[in-house]
Task: inverse folding
């Protein structure tokens, strides 16, 4: 596999999946949650929306280091060989919706049913600046893509 | 459930599809009054039940998707098929299913010898014939053995041959299935095939016949008599008689090739009056199925039994390499004949040619004579290369055949355990390594000798080391690493000393341990056979050991001819360096080097970036993109961590003790560096390839079939080779110093 191929595979996965598992940490207490996400075309940023009262938001404000798992499993035995899983590592932080209307628009296009959710004053638009992707295919083949 | 297993004559036209092609054809023939051996059909849904209830379907899927199919070499496909076969062997048919099959089969065939044959959906469709992709077993007696063989037939849905044609067959783990027919074995006096219409002439039919059972004809072991017959008048147009020597008969282990008696040798397998009867059967089959047929038959006491009928199809893919792969599967009898030929004709022939070529003093030849000599040697090499491909490579199937028999009777956890029985340490490569190992042990015990050698001082003539060294150079000094000539004499001695010094840094290998393990496994194997089959088991083991030995050694004999074939070219190059040579010679030499370059570019080998460690561009790109964990096949159990060195033919001698050997493919001429390695990673995949065989021999963790191994791993990477799971983990670049301190670790 070459770098170009890997980038294409990762991008394809990120464009086609709606949900990802976000992993956070607060004071040595790990936590994992499912979020609706959006990725940009050059793979640099991943966005998701959460209400500020959540445990995950609380965690990432105290420790912005996060991991996110995106995969295309279908809960069949074929997954073990056919599914792809990508782990993104990076730093997360809230960005202002007003200043990033293009992102809000793209997010709603991908998740139309979340338009009320994203426009609520109680929800935050969070951006992860990705440093590394670990892509796993065929159960155990692992490739790394470093953006920083 | 009741309907899934049925006597052949009860299979109705409407349900033939689910019983598969063979059952369907036989039921159709029986209905039209052909004499067909008694049979029981097992429908394909039972296969699906079996693989679903036992979870096998998941394991087959997992096995077949180890890597992209396009990336799998034939040997890897064979390996996958063997592992799947082992899964079937070691998975019991669930009780109720077993009882159901037995309830229909046992009343018909309690003590009668039967054939257990595949009856797949696509096997004999009108468009394509896939005869021979799936298995049939002959002379099976008793319900327990019949059930075991039904599983083997099921397993052959995923045989290496079927997997090669997976697209045409539409093979799909989730949907494909396999019917089976259990049929009375009719031990005919003569057997054969008839083509109702000769593909070359529509007015003729073709009959082929042998004495005894037709397995010998089908697998090509016995050449048949052949008749061309006019379809209208049944008149014999021609009879091609052959030199008849052998026939196949039923034996305790299936079938056996035996000598024909004097009387039978002199008579054709068919009498004149049999010909019209066989033609009539073929024409009738053609009318029943509405198109020309290829009918297998046998004659017993003058009665014709039809064993099978399928449409005549034109062979597909004339230039397809797959048809060559199909020829690699050989019967025991065929392999025995091949061994005779290799040991008594091919190898002595290669040796004689090598010796004759080596005896010629090339420096004494004129430019014209040298040009001629270059061409002549080319032809000699090409001749032997063809023999190697046509006869030596197929002989490697001896190991595979043994592996199947071993796995069937021993049912080991590790489907490659059989490999541990095959090495008797007598391959040329192992003997060479043995001599190197002896020199290394002398060095290990003598610090001052080591210091002398390090300093480039030659030990005294007559000293133990010097005697061993001279012996080694005499025997193996002419052996080049792949594609490169190393001159015998001083150069060879110097390189050998370097190698021995590296080898002395490694712990000695445990020969005795392997020896006793081999003896134990051999006792278990032979002991597992009943008395009357012990001889067969011993013969097969002997054949497999020869197959194992020749797999490496024939390469070395060929490499020696190759080296001789290149020698006049080197002489010519030396002359060219010194000054003018005849134009014809110069043109010849230049042309050849061009051809060689082109071949190297288009060949099977992938280029490896041996200099990457020193390339800044590469380092920059590796900061963005690199492999963290690569998967291949587990080819030698064990785990090892060390510094990687990517090796090709031109940097073999740079390899250091304790490093992990990473390469595109290990050739038999390269195996002398293997004992130095802490672990092995190879792009070329397979369990029976040279690298895997020798890694197993020395107990070195080995992973093969890692796509792009020599590109994604670079010299200096710290890697862990997991030979249990077939995984290579890259832990980033190590500094040379750090590695030198650690010396590379190895755990067992």
Result:
């Amino acid at each position: 596999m070459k770098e170009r191929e890997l980038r294409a595979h990762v991008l394809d996965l990120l464009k086609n999946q709606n949900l990802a598992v976000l992993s956070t940490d607060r004071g040595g207490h790990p936590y994992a949650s499912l979020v609706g996400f959006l990725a940009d075309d050059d793979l640099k940023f991943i966005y998701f929306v959460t209400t500020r009262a959540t445990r995950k938001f609380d965690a990432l404000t105290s420790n912005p280091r996060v991991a996110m798992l995106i995969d295309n499993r279908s809960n069949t035995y074929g997954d073990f060989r056919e599914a792809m899983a990508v782990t993104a590592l990076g730093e997360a932080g809230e960005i202002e919706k007003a200043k990033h209307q293009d992102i809000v628009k793209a997010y709603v296009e991908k998740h139309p049913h979340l338009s009320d959710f994203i426009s609520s004053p109680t929800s935050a638009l969070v951006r992860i600046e990705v440093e590394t992707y670990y892509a796993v295919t065929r159960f155990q083949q692992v490739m790394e893509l470093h953006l920083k | 459930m009741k309907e899934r297993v049925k006597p052949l004559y009860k299979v109705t036209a409407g349900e033939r599809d689910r019983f598969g092609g063979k059952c369907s054809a036989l039921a159709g023939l029986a209905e039209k009054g052909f004499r067909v051996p008694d049979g029981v059909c097992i429908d394909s849904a039972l296969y699906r039940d079996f693989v679903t209830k036992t979870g096998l379907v998941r394991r087959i899927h997992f096995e077949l998707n180890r890597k992209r199919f396009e990336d799998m070499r034939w040997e890897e496909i064979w390996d996958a098929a063997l592992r799947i076969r082992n899964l079937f062997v070691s998975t019991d048919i669930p009780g109720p299913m077993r009882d159901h099959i037995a309830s229909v089969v046992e009343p018909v065939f309690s003590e009668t010898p039967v054939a257990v044959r595949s009856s797949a959906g696509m096997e004999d469709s009108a468009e394509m014939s896939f005869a021979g992709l799936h298995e049939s077993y002959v002379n099976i007696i008793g319900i327990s053995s019949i059930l075991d063989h039904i599983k083997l037939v099921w397993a052959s849905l995923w045989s290496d041959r079927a997997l090669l044609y997976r697209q045409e067959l539409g093979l799909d783990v989730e949907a494909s299935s396999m019917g089976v027919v259990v049929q009375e074995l009719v031990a005919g006096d003569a057997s054969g095939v008839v083509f109702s219409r000769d593909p070359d002439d529509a007015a003729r039919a073709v009959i082929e016949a042998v004495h005894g059972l037709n397995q010998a004809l089908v697998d090509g072991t016995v050449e048949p008599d052949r008749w061309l017959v006019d379809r209208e008048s049944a008149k014999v147009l021609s009879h091609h008689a052959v030199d008849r020597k052998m026939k196949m008969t039923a034996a305790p282990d299936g079938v056996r090739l035996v000598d024909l008696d004097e009387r039978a040798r002199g008579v054709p397998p068919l009498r004149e009056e049999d010909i019209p009867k066989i033609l009539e059967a073929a024409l009738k089959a053609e009318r029943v199925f509405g198109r020309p047929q290829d009918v297998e038959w046998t004659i017993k006491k003058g009665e014709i039994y039809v064993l099978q009928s399928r449409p005549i199809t034109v062979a597909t893919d004339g230039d397809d390499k797959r048809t060559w792969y199909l020829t690699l599967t050989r019967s025991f009898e065929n392999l025995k004949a091949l061994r005779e030929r290799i040991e008594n004709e091919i190898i002595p022939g290669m040796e004689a040619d090598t010796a004759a070529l080596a005896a010629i003093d090339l420096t004494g030849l004129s430019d014209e004579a040298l040009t001629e000599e270059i061409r002549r040697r080319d032809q000699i090499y090409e001749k032997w290369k063809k023999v190697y491909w046509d006869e030596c490579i197929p002989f490697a199937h001896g190991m595979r055949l043994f592996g199947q028999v071993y796995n069937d009777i021993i049912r080991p956890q590790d489907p490659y355990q059989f490999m541990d029985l095959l090495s008797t340490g007598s391959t040329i490569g192992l003997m060479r390594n043995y001599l190197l190992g002896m020199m290394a042990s002398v060095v290990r015990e003598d610090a001052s000798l080591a210091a002398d050698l390090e300093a480039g001082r030659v030990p005294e003539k007559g000293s133990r080391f010097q005697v061993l060294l001279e012996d080694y150079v005499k025997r193996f000094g002419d052996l080049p690493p792949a594609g490169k000539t190393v001159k015998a004499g001083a150069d060879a001695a110097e390189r050998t000393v370097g190698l021995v010094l590296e080898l002395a840094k490694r712990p000695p290998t445990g020969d005795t341990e392997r020896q006793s393990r081999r003896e134990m496994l051999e006792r278990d194997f032979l002991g597992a056979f009943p008395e009357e089959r012990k001889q067969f088991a011993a013969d097969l083991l002997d054949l497999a050991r020869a197959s194992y030995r020749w797999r490496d050694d024939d390469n070395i004999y060929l490499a020696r001819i190759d080296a001789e074939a290149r020698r006049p070219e080197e002489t010519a190059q030396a002359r060219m360096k010194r000054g003018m040579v005849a134009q014809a010679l110069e043109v010849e030499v230049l042309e050849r080097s061009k051809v060689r370059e082109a071949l190297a570019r288009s060949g099977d080998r992938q280029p490896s970036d041996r200099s990457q460690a020193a390339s800044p561009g590469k380092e920059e790109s590796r900061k963005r993109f690199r492999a963290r964990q690569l998967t291949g096949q587990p080819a030698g159990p064990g785990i090892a961590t060390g510094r990687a060195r990517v090796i090709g033919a031109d940097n073999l001698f740079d390899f250091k003790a304790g490093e992990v050997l990473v390469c595109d493919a290990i050739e038999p001429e390269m195996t002398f560096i293997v004992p130095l390695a802490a672990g092995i990673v190879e792009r070329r995949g397979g369990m029976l390839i040279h690298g895997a065989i020798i890694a197993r021999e020395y107990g070195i963790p080995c992973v093969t079939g890692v796509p792009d191994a020599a590109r994604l791993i670079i010299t200096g990477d710290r890697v862990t080779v997991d030979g249990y799971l077939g995984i290579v983990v890259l832990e980033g670049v190590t500094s040379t110093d750090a590695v030198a301190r650690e010396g590379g670790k190895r755990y067992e």
